[in-house]
UniProtKB/TrEMBL annotation:
It comes from the Eukaryota. It comes from Antrodiella citrinella. GO terms for biological process: protein export from nucleus; protein import into nucleus. It is found in: Cytoplasm; Nucleus. GO terms for cellular component: cytosol; nuclear envelope. PROSITE patterns: IMPORTIN_B_NT. Transmembrane segments: none annotated. Residues 20-91 form the Importin N-terminal domain. One of its GO terms (molecular function) is nuclear export signal receptor activity. This is Importin N-terminal domain-containing protein. Its main location: cytoplasm. Belongs to the XPO2/CSE1 family. Pfam families: CAS_CSE1, Cse1, IBN_N.
């Protein structure tokens, strides 16, 4: 394994990457590989790029193979790694090792998710034993490791097993954590700078960031008694530690005003406000016993009121501050803090308007990277989509500020908020009218439109836009009087940000506008597609697709062609909506899509774009939709356009495209009602080789393609004997796998439907033995369901020779009285639990012949 560093260097160069990855894959299955890799990561004298590449490879092997069914890491290697990982994290405590440390911490998290605490009971004890009151270099590594283990709890579903793990952690980690939190806070509040470099102010503050994150982790599911008992020390004014941290801002840790990354004090404050938001949502009764929320609201006002903290580095803090206020308003428990008109006016003037207004760097972003600007501009704040606990949603300041207004409107303060906000909207529109020709006059209207959008919205979803509006605001009239004009205007006559605002307004309130209004703006939107800043739908669909394809085709590199997945998503949706009306020009459009696919396949960089372009091509291929439905002679044209490029992608081994290619081939093959072309038949032997089934992502496409072969070319499969190889795939590759067993049953059902029983008699017993072996060795609830459905399906389908007696006979040939055991232990208990869509199969399986009641 001495050549591993050279292999990682080679994997970083495009010319040698593929071969290096093959060699690394061969080495990765050798015993002791991961321990060797971990030692390489720890070698300080090794090339940094090699160490980082090795840490990423280490994480990916752990993630993919720790409990893999086919190539699992040997138990002896697992035991060795568990002893090595925590010391490794401590050894990587140097700030220069942060990038590598993150990968190792994530690896520990992956292992802990599967093995902790049952198969790794010493993990927390090892972390606790490593904590120090003086060496914060070690503390940072230990705390980040702990956070990586606890973080998944934030999104976990509440369950007894989850709380068992949390209680296990708290019993060992709770008290040491609280002691270290208080000790660390004391150092930071004292203002003294320790002489020991391992206890520098920066390291201590970095540890405090992790301590705050872990506080959230430990309370995200329930409030533990060990933390509830210390509530006053954290929350009660004026000396609660969390409140004191909101005012803590040592000059030496502030950073530069133009820094784009948040300072350590800013990170601490952001984490504390996330905790405060969590408590308001989940533990309001705990907060109501003291004036904690009122004190935090005052602290937030001091932090962000009047447009303070305008730097990019403070975006996260400002957004979270405003999100906390929105949550407090929505909770309804603190109405007295926000209900007066004076307070609402102060909120709008001092907090909302300054943060809704565009800043210089946002305007620069619009000019330099309009796609990223629009992506951020259209993202939804977490409050509109549920709790969002600990989600760290990438919400902008503007959205967070606007959400404060929406919270006021939706909390019974509609009239007061509308009155206050309308003044600012009117003032912004008037300022724009008076200063249209000035360089920055457009900014006033931008702020006004954004604020009006906020005050007009009561409820929204990402799929439908605004679903409920403020009855005091006429959005249709505002669109007609102030927005539509910007859509109509020539690009040179109005600032492009205002045109983006108009499109966003249209997108946001699309369910409120009439059909006629929406149709009237479609030609204008098509015109805007040709911008450098980004009738009946069936009549305008070709123009929309043509304009978007031209935009993509104008890209200079594969990366820029695939950069904007929204463009390809729009094409996909237009095709699906327009259907057969695209038939007259489908061939040209299909060739253009295939040409774009050829360009981006040189360097795939955007998985979403890849998905949408294949979905768009699939829309042209589908029998029951679009082109072929309108022109049955189109199939040869489609195959001629796609078969060659699909073969090239397979030959070039573009891994991320193979699953899509297989599904396209399955769709085209399924269209054939007569003789299957030889080109398809030539593929079948390749599909049945073990190598084709190595890539897990290809299995759904392979199953669909084999099902299409069985449905369209069964006679050739029988004469060639390939059905035996298909049965071997089911028995050896799919049924034994907990991940892929459903695909195995699906393929097996297709075999029973299309291969005569006479041909299966010599093999069906072996198949049933494989099914029963899996039932005996690694039964799951899902597998039992699939097994019962398959047996009843085999009894119910109308296939000559495949009768209930035949199926029962197969079981009895394996072991006398086996059928009655299967019936009693699996089929009868499972039958009443079958989903409604599957009950007809069970009812039609003639189980009544057994004399037992199924339903």
């Amino acid at each position: 394994m001495s050549d591993i560093p050279a292999l990682f260097l080679a994997s970083l160069a495009p010319a040698t990457r593929k071969q290096a990855e093959v060699n690394l894959q061969a080495l990765s299955v050798q015993p002791g590989f991961l321990s060797h890799l971990l030692r390489l990561v720890l070698e300080g004298g090794q090339d940094k790029s090699v160490r980082l590449a090795a840490s990423l490879y280490f994480k990916n092997v752990v993630k993919n193979r720790w409990d893999d069914e086919e190539a699992a890491i040997p138990e002896i290697d697992k035991a060795a790694l568990k002893n090595e990982l925590v010391p490794a994290m401590i050894a990587l405590s140097n700030p220069s090792d942060k990038a590598v440390r993150v990968q190792i911490a994530e690896s520990i998290s992956v292992i802990a998710t599967q093995d902790f605490p049952e198969r790794w009971p010493t993990l927390i004890d090892s972390l606790v034993a490593s904590l120090s009151h003086t060496n914060y270099s070690i503390n940072v590594g230990v705390l980040q490791t702990a956070h990586s283990i606890f973080y998944p709890w934030r999104a976990a579903t509440r369950s007894d097993s989850l709380f068992t793990v949390i209680n296990f952690v708290l019993s060992r980690f709770g008290e040491p954590f609280l002691q270290l939190f208080e000790h660390t806070a004391g150092i930071l509040f004292s203002g003294t700078t320790p002489a020991d470099p391992n206890g520098s102010l920066e390291l201590v503050a970095q540890a405090q960031v992790s301590l705050v994150e872990i506080f959230y982790d430990l309370t995200c599911q329930d409030l533990p008694p060990v933390i509830e008992d210390t509530h006053a020390r954290f929350f009660n004014p004026p000396d609660g530690m969390l409140l004191r941290f909101l005012a803590w801002d040592p000059e030496s840790l502030r950073g530069e005003p133009d820094d784009t990354t948040p300072s350590l004090p800013s990170q601490v404050k952001t984490g504390i406000l996330e905790i405060a938001e969590l408590y308001v949502k989940l533990y309001p009764e705990t907060l109501q016993n003291s004036p904690s929320v009122a004190a935090m609201v005052r602290s937030v006002w001091d932090l962000v009121g009047g447009g303070k903290r305008a730097g990019v580095g403070d975006d996260g803090l400002v957004s979270q501050s405003l999100r906390f206020i929105s949550t407090a308003i929505r909770s309804g428990h603190y109405k007295e803090l926000f209900s007066s008109k004076e307070t609402i006016s102060s909120l709008v003037q001092g907090v909302v308007v300054p943060n809704v207004a565009l800043r210089e760097h946002e305007i620069e972003q619009f000019e330099d990277d309009p796609l990223e600007y629009i992506r951020l501009d259209l993202s939804l704040p977490s409050s509109s989509g549920g709790l969002g606990l600990g989600s760290h949603d990438a919400v902008t300041r503007r959205q967070a500020a606007a959400d404060v207004v929406r919270a006021l409107v939706s909390s019974g303060l509609e009239a007061e908020t509308t009155e206050v906000a309308s003044v600012w909207v009117g003032q912004g529109l008037q300022d724009y009218a008076n200063n249209k020709t000035s360089e920055n006059g457009w900014r006033s209207k931008d702020t006004a439109v954004y604020l009006l959008t906020a005050v007009a919205t009561r409820g929204s979803t990402s799929q439908l836009g605004v679903t409920s509006t403020n009855k005091l605001v006429d959005v249709v009239q505002f669109f007609s009087e102030h927005v539509f004009q910007d859509l109509q205007a020539d690009a040179a006559s109005v600032h492009p940000v205002l045109q983006v605002d108009a499109i966003r307004f249209l997108h946001t309130f699309r369910t409120q506008l009439t059909k006629e209004q929406l149709l009237s703006v479609l030609p204008l939107l098509v015109r805007h597609l040709s911008s450098d800043n980004y009738p009946d739908i069936h009549e305008i669909a070709p123009q929309i697709i043509d304009a978007i394809l031209a935009k993509i085709e104008g890209a200079s590199t594969p990366e820029t062609a695939a950069e904007n997945d929204y463009l390809m998503k729009c094409i996909m949706r237009v095709i699906i909506t327009a259907r057969s009306s695209l038939a007259p020009g489908f061939e040209r459009t299909l060739h253009r899509l295939v040409a774009i696919l050829g360009v981006i396949s040189r360097n795939p960089s955007n998985p979403k774009f890849d998905q949408y372009i294949f979905e768009s091509i699939s829309a042209f291929v589908s029998l029951y939709r679009f082109v072929v439905g309108a022109n049955r002679n189109a199939l040869p044209t489609i195959e001629q356009a796609l078969f060659g490029p699909c073969t090239v992608l397979v030959r070039q081994d573009v891994e991320q495209y193979i699953p899509y290619v297989l599904q396209l081939l399955a769709q085209m093959l399924d269209m054939h009602t007569d003789t299957v072309p030889a080109a398809y038949r030539d593929l079948l032997p390749v599909l049945l080789t073990p190598a084709s089934w190595q890539q897990k992502g290809s299995i759904p496409g392979l199953v669909k393609l084999l099902k299409a072969f069985l449905a369209r070319d069964a006679s050739q499969i029988i004469s060639s004997g390939h059905y035996t190889a298909i049965l071997a795939v089911v028995q050896q590759r799919l049924i034994p796998s907990k991940i892929n067993d459903a695909w195995g049953f699906e393929l097996l059902q297709a075999v029973l439907q299309n291969i005569p029983v006479a041909n299966l008699k010599d093999y069906i017993r072996g198949v049933f033995v494989a099914l029963l072996t899996r039932m005996q060795t690694s039964k799951t609830d899902k597998y039992v369901y699939l097994f019962v459905y398959f047996i009843t399906f085999a009894m119910a389908i109308n296939v000559s020779g495949l009768t209930p007696d035949f199926v029962i006979g197969v079981f009895e040939s394996i072991q006398p009285q086996l059928w009655s055991q299967v019936l009693k232990n699996f089929i009868i208990p499972q039958a009443p639990q079958m989903l409604p869509k599957d009950r007809k199969v069970v009812a039609g399986s003639k189980l009544y012949g057994t004399g037992l009641t199924v339903f």
